[in-house]
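User: Please fill in residues for this 523-position structure.
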């Protein structure tokens, strides 16, 4: 496929103008970049469906000029090209439907889907995406002005911080279609005490707990309950606010770090002391439009940094989908006892939830039934990678339907087989780590198999044009296969191709579902 340069310089008013923006948020961590990168790729693949008369979006009176595109995209001709290495997105299969549509159709709209805004940071600014660092997404008025200026048709707010701060509220009030919960609804993730209270009120199964602001009272309760026990910061702590304490001393130290030393600031001024649940942890996702919810496929994350689930918790070191532990029968139980009561409860509380409900669940060993550990109000990273590469439905249409309260009757189609992602992180993560280490052979890694894709989180380009690591979790090496074993083999083959002395990865992703193989020593 040749680069469709002419479609951006052609003065024909029937040619559709498509803007794809990638907002760069300096104030947020890069943990969720992979998630949003998946969104970006699959929304591109959906453009041929979006460019139809059935959708109503702002239409400018005259087609945008080529200079407008050039001002936004330094390399505009590459936006719909077959570039495969920048950001690790293998765009050939994703973009070709939209490109064929532009080549072969005469679109009657100057602008149909104006933009999908993905709010994130941590990616290098070239090729397939353009970061806009000067737009401060903590400033709602600035975001609204930007959306109005460019006629934005849908905003997808990814990270939890702008959701909790009320960005979605302001966008909806301004009449801009938005996929993401209000600040009130985002409290499901923003305050664990709020989530637990909702569970109590609407009889949603969860671990027993108590909430404390006084360290002495918390320690007395811990002593009465015994170890193991779980200590959680109430607020947002970048995925690091949970301690699974195997001894009383660990539990006391966690309480002191939050309530006395204030290591998490205001997020840790209140702690939840929670019953330790024994079982298997699994992730469950549902799209919600305020009243209706539809489930996504199951996935299983690997939170601990080390092989064998050892070491401290992280944002996630790998995942696979589907998760055998979450059978179809259990998924139905989750929907009926956890997800739907939450949606109805939030509606009854006067704060309808619109967006993604990500339920962290424990399939309890003693009962075999799911209990809610926590809620996140966004797609998980790295779970989203394995979900999105398996989704065959038109994601953009589904997100639009959710933002309009029209999910009733919507069903999702998934590819057969399995997917796995192996996260590569900077040495030292989740503690202090070195930045600026060079990463090579990404193209060779993606060439291991057509189904291998490398999603970037904490990367940038140095002055020589080479990728360097800028974050803790840096790459998500993802592959699909006919079954989980094939997906695992492809993912690890790709990992072995990557030349990054400054990185590391877990070698046992998928251990719960598969017998482990002895991986060859990395070259």
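Assistant: Residues filled in for all 523 positions:
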């Amino acid at each position: 496929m040749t680069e469709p340069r002419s479609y951006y310089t052609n003065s024909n008013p029937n040619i559709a103008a498509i803007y794809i923006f990638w907002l760069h948020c300096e104030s947020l961590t890069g943990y969720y970049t992979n998630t949003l990168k998946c969104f970006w790729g699959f929304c591109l693949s959906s453009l041929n469906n979006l460019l139809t008369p059935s959708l109503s979006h702002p239409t400018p009176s005259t087609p945008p000029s080529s200079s407008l595109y050039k001002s936004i995209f330094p390399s505009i001709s590459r936006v719909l090209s077959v570039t495969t290495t920048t950001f690790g997105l293998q765009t050939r299969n994703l973009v070709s439907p939209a490109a064929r549509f532009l080549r072969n159709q005469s679109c009657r709209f100057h602008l149909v889907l104006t933009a999908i805004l993905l709010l994130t940071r941590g990616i290098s600014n070239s090729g397939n995406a353009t970061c806009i660092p000067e737009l401060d997404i903590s400033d709602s008025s600035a975001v609204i002005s930007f959306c109005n200026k460019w006629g934005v048709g849908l905003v997808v707010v990814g990270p939890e911080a702008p959701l909790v701060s009320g960005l979605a509220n302001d966008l909806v009030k301004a009449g801009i279609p938005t996929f993401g919960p209000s600040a009130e609804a985002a409290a499901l993730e923003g305050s664990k005490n709020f989530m637990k209270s909702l569970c109590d009120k609407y009889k949603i199964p969860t671990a027993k707990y108590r909430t404390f602001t006084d360290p002495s009272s918390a320690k007395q309760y811990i002593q009465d309950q015994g170890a193991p026990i779980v200590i959680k910061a109430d607020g947002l702590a970048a995925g690091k606010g949970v301690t699974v304490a195997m001894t009383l001393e660990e539990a006391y130290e966690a309480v002191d770090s939050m309530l006395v030393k204030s290591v998490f600031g205001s997020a840790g001024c209140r702690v939840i002391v929670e019953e330790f649940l024994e079982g298997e942890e699994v992730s469950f996702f549902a799209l919600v439009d305020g009243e209706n919810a539809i489930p996504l496929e199951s996935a299983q994350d690997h939170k601990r940094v080390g092989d064998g689930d050892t070491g401290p918790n992280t944002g996630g070191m790998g995942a696979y989908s589907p998760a055998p532990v979450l059978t179809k029968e259990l998924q139905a139980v989750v929907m009926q006892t956890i997800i739907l009561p939450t949606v109805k409860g939030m509606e009854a509380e006067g704060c309808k939830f619109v967006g993604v409900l990500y339920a962290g669940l424990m399939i309890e060993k003693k009962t075999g039934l799911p209990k809610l550990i926590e809620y996140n109000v966004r797609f998980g990273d790295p779970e989203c990678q394995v979900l999105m590469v398996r989704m065959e439905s038109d994601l953009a249409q589904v997100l639009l339907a959710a933002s309009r309260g029209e999910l009733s009757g919507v069903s999702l189609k998934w590819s057969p087989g399995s997917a796995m992602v192996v996260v590569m992180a900077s040495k030292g993560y989740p503690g202090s780590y070195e930045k600026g280490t060079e990463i090579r052979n990404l193209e060779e890694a993606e060439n291991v198999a057509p189904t291998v894709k490398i999603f970037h989180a904490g990367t940038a380009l140095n002055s020589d044009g080479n990728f360097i690591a800028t974050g803790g979790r840096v790459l998500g090496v993802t592959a699909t296969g006919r079954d989980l074993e094939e997906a695992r083999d492809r993912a690890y083959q790709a990992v072995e191709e990557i030349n990054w002395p400054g990185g590391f990865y877990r070698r046992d992703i998928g251990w719960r579902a598969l017998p482990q193989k002895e991986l060859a020593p990395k070259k």
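For context: Confidence is low (pLDDT under 50) at residues 1-128.
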